[in-house]
Amino acid sequence: MKKIFLYGILATTVVFSFEACSPAHGNHPGHEYMPDMGHSVAQEANIYNGYSLNTWDKQSVKSLKELSQPRNTVAGTIPRGSVGMSATGNAADMMAMLTGAGNSVSTPINGNVPYYYGDDEAERTRATKEIVVNPFPITKKGLEEGKELFRIYCGICHGEKGGGDGYLANGPDAKYLAQPANLLLDTFVNGNNGRLYHAIMYGKNVMGSYADKLSYEERWKVIHYIRACQADSKKLIYNDKQNTFKPNFGIPDSIYKATLAGKTGVQKPAAAPAVATAKPVTTSKPAPKGK
Ligand code: HEC
Fold this sequence. Notes:
Blueprint: H1 2-20, H2 35-38, H3 64-67, H4 91-99, H5 121-130, H6 140-153, H7 155-158, H8 167-170, H9 186-190, H10 193-202, H11 216-233, H12 253-260, H13 271-277
Bound molecules: heme C.
Heme C is lined by residues 124, 153-154, 156-158, 168, 178, 180-181, 183, 195-196, 199-200, 204-207, 210, 222.
């Protein structure tokens, strides 16, 4: 009798242990012994529903459900990459964001900088209208690098100095059928920087995009170089010391530094008017007046 009882218990245990670990098959989800050992309780961040079994924070002031929800960013947070557009249109503000000057947060210049314009003619016009100032001051080094980059990426078509006479389209063995734009034409000279930036981002007709070849900073260096070539063709000056060409388009480094000097922060909108009104540092004879 005792034996039968023992066998009974043993048989039941065996049956149960098999049943407890029965593997999944077909429509049968299977059984698991202590499922939370196999599947750890995960806390999913930034979702709106807290998992009901996550109860370890009972003593906490906030419930886990609250903790797992997305929260607003800390006041003053600059989203990564948001330096592309300065709300004030003020180059000094923009530089501050890029370099972390004053008490602003530095943003990696070669990070992803969004471009809020589409790839069509209406958007080209809008970019031309809205994007005026080059966010980087004109520096000697920047101009040299811009020249080198232009030579590598643009010069083959647009010519070393932007005259539209690159060897790919105009050389003795020229095979390129389209005529690259002459960037020294008045339409480009007078157009705001957005026209050039847009062309780099999307190209135009047979010209492809150079957005993946040039970083955010490099694009603006190339634009500085194009402006310097244009200024040259007009016998005007566009360099790190003075800009008699188009004061709205680029801030010479010396003026930029003078504007920032003595300031702890650069939030005040002083820099933009200062650029427009600042007397260029004249190094030699007075330069001809810009248009
Ligand atoms: C393979 C040849 C080629 C290269 C390289 C090239 N372009 Fe172009 N680009 C063209 C052609 C062709 C046009 C004229 C497109 C049209 O108007 O149909 C043009 C037009 C332009 C325009 C005028 C756009 C407008 O608004 O009308 C700009 C600005 C420009 N290119 C800048 C650049 C810059 C900056 C680079 C270098 C990063 C570059 N291009 C590289 C062929 C080229």
